[in-house]
Automatic annotation (TrEMBL):
Lineage of origin: Eukaryota, Metazoa, Chordata, Craniata, Vertebrata
Keywords: Antiport, Hydrolase, Membrane, Methyltransferase, Mitochondrion, Mitochondrion inner membrane, Repeat, S-adenosyl-L-methionine, Transferase, Transmembrane, Transmembrane helix, Transport
Ranges annotated as spanning the membrane: 784-804
A single GO molecular function term of this UniProt record: nucleoside triphosphate diphosphatase activity
Ranges of residues in domain O-methyltransferase C-terminal: 410-500
Organism: Cervus hanglu yarkandensis (Yarkand deer)
Record-level GO cellular component terms: mitochondrial inner membrane
PANTHER family: ADP,ATP CARRIER PROTEIN 1-RELATED-RELATED (PTHR45635), ADP_ATP TRANSLOCASE 3 (PTHR45635:SF13)
A Pfam family: Maf
CDD domains hit by this protein: Maf
Keyword NADP in annotation: no
Protein name stated in the entry: Uncharacterized protein
One GO BP annotation of this record: negative regulation of mitochondrial outer membrane permeabilization involved in apoptotic signaling pathway
Keyword Methyltransferase applies: yes
Family: Belongs to the mitochondrial carrier (TC 2.A.29) family.
Length: 871
């Protein structure tokens, strides 16, 4: 079928799919085709009776769907695409064409007609090639159809209405979708299954192969030609570069009857667009995305400035005309803006009306509780304007910072100061809870928030900590205006506003918890640092751009320091250079980016000793893709010895675990299996084996669980050196967790672990003993047979119990954490959130490596039996 060469040929062309069907989009995307989606506005109102056959109707409808976008681009004075693909799927039974049902009764009539019968599914496909000749925009149309025969089972009334009430039939030709619930109605399919889904991919690829690679057969579908559309741009035709196509045929030689003219059989007959051939490198999509990405930001900021989200928050859905009237804009301009917002996921469109998404109502409406409207205005104003002068800043060699400067709003007008404060206030309200609960600040009775602005964080702090008094320290101009801003909490007597400058020592900082929240208006991944001189600090993924120098000279032992910053997570490579995701923080901060190691050295130079970098989990972009990826990356990123991180705890726990298991197993077997005949009481014997194995495992777990906990935490404690890790070793881990959370912290996840160990040990011992007991001569069974049974039992037991192990490890990772680092309220909440946020597959991450590791357990099981024979 020459699929890959055909798809490569289209990679350098602008391909448009004139269909909003998600099923067609998925089929073509899976085939590797890159395309834009421009739904056709053609109204499917062709008179069915005027067509000789159902397939003729489907082909004509597909052709009209494909031609309409070309006219649309022309009318909008836009560059036309190179290729437009249109498709239409219909169901035909007894010569009657069935399209999409208009209501439930119509769906019932359709499905009743199909019940117990064969019917045909036709998909007409039209491929339109656009080119320019002699100042006119020509379109060449290649069209075909595919037929698939489908047989329905005899359907009961109950089944029919159950399916109709599901809502699935309403947007499907014939009233059913074979790829979803409708598949239960189908008895058999003869032909292309994807044709029934909505697009005949197999036939489509064959037709493209004929167009681009080989002369067409005389009986192949005919390509027809339209040349009535005036040109809007210069286009070159398509050709068979690999097959050596013929010279371009002259344009406008006149139309034959019906407005079409036949073309000679053969391949398309011009070079690829702009002369690009398959030997050229692929289009740099990421580079183009970076160049073009500012448009999406500008659309969002403009919609905020025009109060689009305010208009739609309480009154939506509204038409484009309604919105245009409210924001004082043209209908056409408003419609374009709204459609782009829909494409960006900011708005929803249904039935011609536009409405806010939940995120837009929560964060983009100006009166929302967690509104970022002020931040959008600040970015759209001074920040956007400053970026337009970036070239001048580069030439002058000055560190670029947006005006007005966030650190010095007194240099600007009152309005400029208010604009910055609105941005800061919105972002502070959004992050205040995370910052306030990131660490346990209850030991402190006073705090000073440096550059506290409107006091949003201060009010959240006094809510969380009833004993805490907070002083907001900022510039006089800011303090004067802070009273105009509302917070989620009522005014508190424990929040005080004090004006000053960077040269003024903040009040009471020597004895209090000093707080610094600096914002750089980048994707939210807040960083925290807490500590006190002479004590232990935990450094989050990053640090703010400019710690207050006054802290290093004023903070005395016993005080604390918490710094938080909005900025992307960054890590250090082997050479110490920070690697950042795409962003412009370096321009906004006027400095080179710093990694955690650089911040650690900075704090140590200020008198903070034993600073440690901690992360509650591996960042999303650093997670392992599988076993092989993990094995390859660990030596590179953390060193070969990291494979044995936590192994001491594993070795120490292994022998008592096995000894206790085997010791308790025999005791419990006497309890549960005493007097049970395995030949005459099989199920009681089986249940007794399950109970004794599970009880033995659960009992041993009570003694060795802290070691299992330490092994898990040490294995997850990534880093190349001790200074980058949370724990120095087994003893340090046990001591720190005990100091932080008490003995209870060492048993985090114990309940779910007991559940999992009962299931695992039940299968591990119970099924194994039962299977061995069913052998003709269990005592003289060959060791290889015993090992095969044990290996199977171990693998099955490991997979069945693995979800409990996943939840256990997640709960273990929460010990020693505080506030926002606590992801799960309990075991049930952990199960629920993993399933909701990550899907069922997340419970089995690493299950395959666990099965491989279980081979040793199978050997131990067999060896135990062999030793019993000797002893």
């Amino acid at each position: 079928m020459l699929l890959c060469p055909v798809i490569r040929k289209l990679q350098h062309k602008r391909v448009v799919l004139a269909s909003s069907s998600p099923r067609r989009q998925e089929i073509l995307s899976n085939a590797g085709l890159r395309f834009e989606v421009v739904p056709s506005r053609f109204k499917e109102k062709l008179h069915k009776a005027s067509f000789a056959s159902p397939q003729a109707y489907a082909v004509e409808t597909a052709k009209q769907k494909a031609l309409e976008p070309s006219l649309y681009f022309l009318q909008k004075d836009l560059r036309a695409p190179d290729v437009v693909i249109g498709a239409d799927t219909i169901v035909a039974v007894g010569g009657l064409i069935l399209e999409k049902p208009v209501d439930k009764q119509d769906a019932y009539r359709m499905l009743s007609r199909l019940s117990g019968k064969e019917h045909s599914v036709f998909t007409g496909v039209a491929v339109v090639h656009c080119c320019t000749k002699d100042g006119q925009l020509d379109t060449q149309v290649s069209e075909f159809y595919e037929e698939t025969t489908v047989k329905f089972s005899a359907l009961s009334e109950e089944l029919l209405w159950e399916y109709i009430d599901s809502g699935e039939p309403m947007d499907k030709a014939g009233g059913y979708g074979i790829q979803a619930l409708g598949g239960m109605l189908v008895e058999y399919v003869h032909g292309d299954f994807l044709n029934v889904v909505g697009f005949p991919l197999n036939r489509f690829c064959k037709e493209l192969a004929c167009l681009y690679h080989a002369p067409r057969d005389p009986g192949a579908p005919q390509r027809i030609h339209y040349d009535s559309i005036p040109a809007v741009d210069t286009f070159e035709d398509l050709s068979n570069v690999e097959g050596g196509g013929s010279d371009p045929a002259p344009a406008n030689r006149g139309l034959e009857a019906g407005g079409v003219r036949p073309r000679a059989p053969g391949t398309l007959d011009a070079p690829d667009l702009n002369g690009v051939r398959d030997s050229q490198p692929p289009i740099p999509a990421r580079l183009l995305g970076l160049m073009d990405g500012f448009k999406a930001s500008k659309v969002l900021l403009t919609a905020c400035r025009l109060n689009v989200f305010d208009v739609l928050k309480d009154r939506g859905p509204l038409t484009a005309a309604d919105v245009a009237r409210e924001i004082d804009a043209s209908v056409d301009g408003a419609e374009r803006l709204l459609d782009v917002c829909v494409a960006l996921g900011l708005l929803e469109k249904a039935g011609g009306g536009y409405s806010n998404t939940e995120t837009a109502s929560r964060h983009l409406a100006s009166d929302a509780e967690l509104s970022l409207h002020g931040l959008a205005a600040y970015l759209d104003g001074p920040v956007w304007g400053a970026f337009t002068h970036l070239g001048r800043a580069v030439r002058e060699g000055a560190a670029w910072t947006p005006e007005p400067l966030p650190q010095a709003p007194h240099k600007q007008s009152t309005e400029a100061t208010l604009q910055f404060m609105r941005a800061s206030h919105g972002l502070s309200k959004l992050t205040a809870h995370h910052v306030a609960t990131a660490f346990d600040l209850s030991p402190f009775t006073s705090a000073c928030h440096l550059q506290g602005c409107t006091g949003a964080l201060a009010h959240k702090l006094v809510q969380e900590y009833p004993r805490l008094q907070v002083t907001v320290f900022d510039l006089p101009e800011v303090i004067e205006l802070a009273g105009d801003f509302q917070t989620d909490a009522r005014p508190s007597e424990r929040v005080h506003f004090v004006p000053g400058t960077e040269q003024t020592a903040p009040p009471g900082i020597a004895e209090s918890a000093a707080l610094s929240l600096q914002t750089e208006f980048l994707p939210p991944s807040h960083r925290e640092v807490r500590g006190s001189p002479g004590g232990t600090r935990r450094l989050g993924p990053g640090m703010p751009a400019r710690p207050f120098p006054v802290i290093s000279v004023s903070v005395s032992p016993g005080a604390g320091l918490l710094l938080a910053e909005l900025a992307p997570v960054e890590e250090e490579d082997a050479g110490g250079a920070a690697r950042r995701p795409p962003g412009l923080q370096i321009l906004g901060a006027g400095r080179a980016p710093r990694g955690p190691g650089q911040y650690r050295r900075l704090l140590q130079g200020l008198g903070f000793r034993d600073v440690q970098h901690a992360s509650k989990q591996i960042a999303a972009d650093k997670q392992y893709k599988g076993i092989v990826d993990c094995i390859v990356r660990i030596p590179k990123e953390q060193g070969v010895l990291s494979f044995w991180r936590g192994n001491l705890a594993n070795v120490i726990r292994y022998f008592p675990t096995q000894a206790l298991n085997f010791a308790f197993k025999d005791k419990y077997k006497q309890i549960f299996l005493g007097g049970v005949d395995k030949h005459t009481q099989f199920w009681r014997y089986f249940a007794g084996n399950l109970a004794s194995g599970g009880a033995a495992g659960a009992t041993s777990l009570c003694f060795v669980y802290p070691l299992d906990f330490a092994r898990t935490r040490l294995a997850a404690d990534v880093g190349k050196s001790g200074s980058e890790r949370e724990f120095k070793g087994l003893g340090d881990c046990l001591v720190k967790i005990t100091k932080s959370d008490g003995i209870r912290g060492l048993y985090q996840g114990f309940n779910v672990s007991v559940q999992g160990i009962i299931i695992y040990r039940a299968a591990y011992f119970g099924i194994y003993d039962t299977a061995k007991g069913m052998l003709p001569d269990p005592k003289n069974t060959h060791i290889v047979v015993s090992w095969m049974i044990a290996q199977t039992v171990t693998a099955v037991a490991g997979v069945v119990s693995y979800p409990f192990d996943t939840v256990r490890r997640r709960m273990m990772m929460q010990s020693g954490r505080k506030g926002a680092d606590i992801m799960y309220k309990g075991t049930v909440d952990c199960w629920r959130k993993i399933l909701k946020d990550e899907g069922g597959k997340a419970f089995f991450k690493g299950a395959w490596s666990n099965v491989l590791r279980g081979m040793g357990g199978a050997f131990v099981l067999v060896l135990y039996d062999e030793l019993k024979k000797v002893i």
